[in-house]
Amino acid sequence: MDRFDVTIIGGGPVGLFGAALASLHGMKTKLIESLPLLGGQLYTLYPEKYVYDVAGFPKILAKDLAEQLIDQALRYHPTVCTNQTVENLEMLDDGAYRVHTSSEVHETRTIIITSGLGSFIPRKLPPPSAERYIDRGIYYFVPAMSHFQGQRVVVVGGGDSALDWALAIAEAASQVTLVHRRGDFRGQQETVRQLQEHPRVSIRTFSECIDFQGSTRLESVVLVDHRDKTTHVLVADAVVAALGFLPDLGALKNWGLDLEGSSITVDGPMRTNRPGIYAAGDVVAYEGKEKLIATGFGEIGNALGHIRGYLDPKKRGGLPHSSNIKIESP
Ligand SMILES: Cc1cc2nc3c(=O)[nH]c(=O)nc-3n(C[C@H](O)[C@H](O)[C@H](O)COP(=O)(O)OP(=O)(O)OC[C@H]3O[C@@H](n4cnc5c(N)ncnc54)[C@H](O)[C@@H]3O)c2cc1C
Predict the structure, then answer these.
(1) What CATH number did the domain enclosing 213 receive?
(2) Residue of the nearest CA to atom 51 in ligand 1?
(3) What percent of the chain has pLDDT over 70?
């Protein structure tokens, strides 16, 4: 079996940047992703939203950032396996690992876990009738904005995701109703202000969806106002439920790693408690951790600097500057 220096689990932004860095620095690198598409949350959760806080990109659509990261990673020819979920781990006598996925077995000297939120399990809308309209009017994963052109859309939630989606969808939809069960929003107040002033957005606080109706597709939503217990029927072509995602480590939680909730605890060089296993990005926990793309990029750089010395003690001391590397092709 072909043995790799580094196997990265999860092809989100952090795993992709890790694949670029590791292969750029001459490590024999493999990236394993459970979905058919690389890009992680950028592609799966908010492809049409702009990101403003990634260094070097003043403003970039999430899906375009994903494309840039994929392009950067593939330039240095890591082995990429998509459509495979990492499940079991086996430690070999010489300290290397066998990684068992849903369809293959891989051998590697070190592992970096960049599995982020895990398998993207959305928090569900409570009414049982919601199940009937999934992808027939009710969406937990937001489709392209063009899908909502001229539609009447209800966005449910009170955090940044719900606020941002309501604002983005309002550019395409004929009408957006933002429904939140509390009186105040957890998200950015500036976005709340923009929504309040938007001519096609109405906001219903203290309200909750209690039923969904329609023949073959969603046609209306029943809302209750908790203040006076009155119900209202709202005609709607689509509901976007932005209630957040439940982080889930899946089978990785049985690997004997030290955990804090569903996050993996790491030290400065991003080591877990198991030798040769590192973690970076949204999946990790340490004091002061910020779940941002930028921090994930730094973390995986730290991990790879350490891994380089772990693989070859003569190379201790971190990653050399890339500007000193002679790149042949791209
Ligand atoms: C709506 C929204 C807006 C955001 N906006 C910003 C922003 O403006 N700026 C910012 O910095 N951050 C933003 N974030 C956060 C940012 O997207 C995350 O910090 C980032 O995606 C974390 O990257 P990651 O690679 O660690 O994990 P993820 O992006 O979660 O990728 C993890 C990947 O691992 C895969 N995976 C999981 N388990 C396995 C397994 N067992 N086997 C194989 N593959 C597996 C998943 O399928 C996924 O592709 C936003 C998040 C959301 C939800």
Answers:
(1) 3.50.50.60
(2) 41
(3) 99
